[in-house]
Amino acid sequence: MKLANPVPPEVVQQVAEYFSLLSEPMRLRLLNQLSGGEKCVQELVQGMQTSQANVSKHLKVMWQAGILSRRSEGTSAYYRVEDEMIFELCNLVCDRLATRIEQQAHHFRVFNGRQ
Predict the structure, then answer these.
(1) Is residue 60 one of the residues assigned to a domain?
(2) What pLDDT, in 10s, does the model give residues 11-48?
(3) Phi, psi (degrees; rounded to nearest 5) at 68
(4) Is 69 in the same domain as 19?
(5) pTM for the full model?
(6) Which residues touch 45 (CB under 8 Å, ≥6 apart)?
(7) Which of these, 17, 31, 67, 75, has the minimum number of CB atoms within 10 Å of its CB?
(8) Would residue 27 count as lying in a domain?
């Protein structure tokens, strides 16, 4: 990431907060569940095997950040990914991690005398 100098502290703070949204494994799991489309909270709770309070807490954080959108229908709340670019960001990170793992595996094979 190339940022103009000097970078205002408020900008750095906002960027850090955006990245911190993805530092929680539960949120990544929820995003994965929502990658197939809109789901109600109860569906997400069942898919995550955790409490509704925990799922709702993480959904609220992502909704407040603008990553998710929410709609109500009766007594149910439905969430969907509003900012599809979040998947591009996750794919970039996953591709980079996969490349590193492949490189490490190659180094281990070379060390072990197998190429």
Answers:
(1) yes
(2) 889 889 989 999 999 999 999 999 999 999 999 999 89
(3) -115, 155
(4) yes
(5) 0.80
(6) 51, 52, 55
(7) 75
(8) yes
